[in-house]
Write a structure and sequence with these properties.
This protein is an alpha+beta fold and 624 residues long. 32% of the residues lie in helices and 18% in strands. The protein has 14 helices and 25 strands.
């Protein structure tokens, strides 16, 4: 019977090729594989069900076997044997028992099992599989019903239906001694836990011009070659995106093109700094930097992540990336992002919520957001303070028209209370009254723009923007501070993780901010250890923790000297990296990575927090 488990993301990758047939009149070579797995064929749940695949040995030694399994059960065991007699456990020449929980629980894909034993070439054997679980969930061996007269016989044990063993015209999916492309993780997915499929992407391959996402189905058992975006597969071979190509290739390990790419990536990392007081933090920082580099387009656009809905440039995400690139010594990348922000600025000095990566315009009708007028000047200031002194003045001059338009618009937007207008915040949802996510960003941006104006000899601009910053600071102190910096000035929309934007490296922390950070964290904390972006009673974020919001607090506490709290939060975030070491956008209620990975915004925040905890914090723009 077919299982009641849907894993279309895995099944969509099924290899449907038909094995080649021998010319007519030529004896068929022994078959030790059948790769199709488009149908859930036989239940293998004990004690009433099992399956066996007959094969004839074509070599003198057994090294491993593989078969395509789906399991709705998360716990239990799977017994795998190679027998000389189909229905005799005593005839097994090799056996292994797998733990379903160790495989990742419920899921689907090719299960590879190391089994070693001598074989007699030309002798028939049986690959036997049977699962034992207390759960009332299916465990099924897949295969195909398409005709393949050369495929060896598949056997279905169904005591209730057949009364025992039954040879079936359907053919199970299996390999004996798979090598190279027959190994899972190359063209076919290794067994993937169903929970992993909640993540749309698991990693990135890239060259300087193109990027390709690693899907969860092909990340299991894989690992990056240290200091690179070259992926080492379970087979030992490598997958990478060669220079000039837009699709990855699988090569032998030590492929010359892959080795050149590895060397170039390592040289790029070595040219900057990799923060982290512990090996785990250093490893996370290296991966964050390489992932951010892969998300950066040659034109300076910075993709939020590499999945269709995220393959756009947000001014906010790009600004954080520019600040992190600058702080880690990657000046060229930081400046490239800022120039792209300049190219995509609207004539009135504002930015769309997001634009397509080619800079042509917004991908949809999403309402523009004013916080970009704070984040872009802040990022420009962070770049300027870290940039090489010999040419930064000329490069700042090229950016100055962008700063002037952004800061002037922000100044003119303030109302009689010194606050910006109501509108969408970083939640990308509208508010009816001013929100802290926009107000705090604009305060940072106005102070940053004023300081850059002073550095550029623009005293009039500096005075005007400093005055606007003081008005905005007073407005925040009057209308947000009494409530602990809630989401909106009317206090009707709960707490907001953007309270952390009032801390360095964005703003000089007000005296009352420490208690507000503590109370906001407590209000937004989830049982899984992360936090929600906010707790507005009119909108639910569900039970998923957001890694950017959680990392806001690592950065804020590091910037205000609360290093023990910052350490705890940063270590929690890093503990949620996926199997490839990538940082996800969200973490589900069970503590598992979810949504996209990597997320460039979280990568940037982690780098800034690690630097701050190393004793090299990015400062907040000065106030005058």
């Amino acid at each position: 019977m077919a299982p009641s488990i849907t894993l279309s993301a895995v099944l969509a990758t099924a290899l449907l090729s038909v094995p080649a047939t021998a010319p007519e009149g030529t004896p068929a070579a022994p078959r030790t594989d059948q790769a199709r797995h488009d149908v859930a064929l036989f239940s293998v749940k004990a004690e009433n069900n099992a399956a066996a695949q007959e094969f004839t040995a074509d070599s003198s030694r057994l090294d491993r076997v593989s078969f395509y399994l789906t399991s709705g059960a998360a716990t239990g065991t799977v017994t795998v044997q190679v027998r000389t007699e189909r229905d005799s456990a005593a005839s097994a020449i090799a056996a292994r028992t797998l733990d379903l929980a160790a495989l990742g629980g419920a899921g689907a894909g090719w299960v590879e099992v190391p089994l070693t034993a001598p074989l007699a070439a030309g002798t028939p054997y049986y690959l036997f599989v049977q699962a034992t679980t207390a759960e009332n969930k299916p465990v099924v061996w897949h295969g195909t019903r398409q005709a393949d007269p050369q495929a060896p016989v598949s056997w279905n044990y169904d005591r209730a239906h057949w009364g025992g063993w039954h040879s079936d015209p359907a053919r199970l999916a299996f390999h004996v001694n798979p090598v190279d492309g027959d190994r899972c993780g190359e063209t076919e997915p290794c067994y993937v836990p169903a929970s992993a499929l909640a993540a749309r992407t698991s990693g990135l391959l890239g060259n300087r011009d193109a990027t390709e996402a690693v899907s969860p189905s092909f990340a299991v058992g894989a690992a990056y070659v240290e200091g690179s975006n070259v992926l080492r597969l379970p087979s030992g071979r490598w997958r990478y995106l060669p220079t000039g190509r837009t699709a990855s290739v699988v090569t032998a390990a030590d492929d010359p093109g892959a080795l050149r790419q590895i060397a170039e990536s390592r040289a790029w990392l070595a040219a900057g700094k990799v923060p982290g007081a512990t090996p785990a933090r250093q490893a996370a920082s290296r991966r964050a930097l390489l992932s951010m580099r892969a998300l950066l387009r040659p034109n300076g656009a910075f993709a939020a992540a590499w999945s269709p809905a995220w393959e756009n440039n947000w001014p906010r995400d790009g600004s954080f990336a520019a600040a992190a690139f600058a702080a880690t010594g990657h000046d060229a990348e930081a400046y490239l992002v800022l120039r792209h922000n300049q190219a995509t600025q609207r004539p009135d000095g504002t930015w769309e919520a997001r634009t397509t990566l080619d800079g042509a315009g917004p991908p949809d009708s999403r309402t523009w957001q004013l916080d970009g007028n704070g984040w872009v000047p802040w990022a420009t200031w962070q770049w300027y303070r870290a940039a090489p002194a010999q040419d930064r003045a000329a490069r700042l001059a090229a950016l100055y028209p962008m700063l002037q338009k952004a800061a002037d618009y922000a100044t003119d937007s303030l109302d009689a209370n010194g606050l910006p207008p109501a509108g969408p915040d970083y939640w990308e949802l509208p508010t009816d009254t001013p929100n802290i996510g926009t107000a705090a960003a604009l305060l940072s941006g106005l102070n940053a723009a004023a300081d850059l104006a002073r550095a550029s000899g623009r005293a009039g601009d500096a005075a005007r923007w400093s005055l606007a910053a003081r008005r905005l600071s007073n407005g925040i102190a009057t209308h947000f501070a009494p409530g602990g910096y809630p989401r909106t000035s009317d206090g009707l929309h709960g707490r907001d993780s953007a309270a952390a934007f009032m801390a360095p490296p964005f703003n000089t922390a007000p005296a009352d901010l420490p208690s507000a950070l503590d109370s906001t964290w407590d209000a937004l904390l989830l049982p899984n250890g992360g936090i929600l972006p906010g707790n507005d009673p009119e909108f639910s974020w569900g039970s998923y923790a957001w890694t950017p919001s959680t990392t806001f607090f690592a950065l804020a506490w590091a910037g205000t000297g609360e290093h023990q709290k910052a350490d705890r939060v940063l270590d929690w975030v890093l503990s949620k990296r996926n199997g490839l070491g990538e940082l996800p956008e969200t973490v589900d209620g069970a503590g598992r990575p979810s949504s996209v990975a990597p997320l460039g915004w979280t990568d940037s925040l982690v780098l800034l927090a690690a630097l701050a905890l190393d004793g090299s914090p990015a400062p907040a723009p000065p106030t005058r």
